[in-house]
Amino acid sequence: MKFRGILLTSFQALMQNTRRSLLTMIGIVVGISSVIIILSLGQGFQNYTLENLNKTNKNEDFKIEISFTPNDLSNNTGNNNFSELDIQMIKNISGVETVTLKKTDIYSITKNFIFKQGKYTKSINLSDESNTNLLLGRNYSKLDNEELHKVVVISKDTAEEISPDIDSVLGYGLNVDNELYTVIGISKNDEKQAVFNDEADIEIPKKTYDYYHAGSEEVSSIYLSIQKGYTPSKIANNVVKQLTQAGSMASKGTYSTIDMGNIMDGISKVLSALTYFISGIAGISLFIAGVGVMNMMYTSVSERNREIGIRRAVGAKKNDIRLQFLVEGLILTLISGVIGYLIGFGIAFTISQFLPFKVSPSLSTIMIAISISILIGIIFSVAPANSAARKELVDILNN
């Protein structure tokens, strides 16, 4: 029996039981459309998220961040971690297109001090004015900050480390990087307040510090844009290697790379996995629909014993009978898959009109819909088709 004849006969058999065929198709349509809705919206959201993350890199295909971590975090002075020589060295590396500094305005630093009682590491807070609870003296004001007065407010503990007689500490000249600051206030050690606030040992007017200490901006890291045709990870590793060997801060810490491309790729994989996981849950309905297809095919086989017997009598082989029912199942599920895709995409597109992102047809979702339809058609039609093919002509004629 030619395949064209089998195809035509399959359509005729399905049309003879239109109501049963339509009811069976509903399960497949609902299952496919549910999966397509979730996949389409998930891919739309994924593209929208990645576009927003990459918005600052519109004109650059790849952007990599190189950062520096000091070995002694307690002695963070706020100095630049990348010198002009470092920047020039990086620009000369093949594959690097541009180098951009990432500057951070700092308000809290730590420094080492030597007092009569010993050596201490102290935290310094930079602010426009101080508003601490004072034990002695006064807070510095916005006027002190604007007029670059070299004044400080220190904690009671710090004052006691300078001298046991804290009254004598008022007016003391505190050396901060070879600049003398006059102590004008001593704050109380408020334990209750310290629980909720990270109180500094020393407070200095920010503008004063910026003026006398070359600013309080820190180049914490740099951004590299990579020329097309180069592998970003290789360029990044080469830059880190060069900085480790000849960087201005190589002896004081470590350089590392943060590849935004890898981060975005990771986010994309997580979003994709989440979308497919939810789609898999929605696809459980397809299994139930597949059982419905199998039930319909078994019913069709039992009702068409006479047809099977006549075809066997005129020369049809077992494989012809098996193929006949397999094709019927595939036609049923393929038509259902196409309808399910159209309905699912239509619903997803309508929903996206009320969301900040849009959905568009994709080859992947079309292939998923077709593949699922074919799999359901084959898996749930094989057993009924084999049952029909195994029927013996003698048994059919006796019945």
From TrEMBL:
Start and end residues of each ABC3 transporter permease C-terminal domain: 281-392
Domain MacB-like periplasmic core, residue spans: 21-239
Alphabetic keyword roster: Cell membrane, Membrane, Transmembrane, Transmembrane helix
Cellular component GO terms held in the UniProt record: plasma membrane
Xref: InterPro entries: ABC3_permease_C (IPR003838), MacB_PCD (IPR025857), Macrolide_Exporter_MacB (IPR050250)
Residues that span the membrane, as ranges: 21-42, 274-298, 325-351, 363-383
UniProt subcellular location: Cell membrane
GO molecular function: transmembrane transporter activity
Principal place of residence: membrane
Keyword tRNA-binding attached: no
Membrane topology: Multi-pass membrane protein
Family recorded in the similarity comment: Belongs to the ABC-4 integral membrane protein family.
Protein name: ABC transporter permease
Organism name: Lactococcus garvieae TRF1
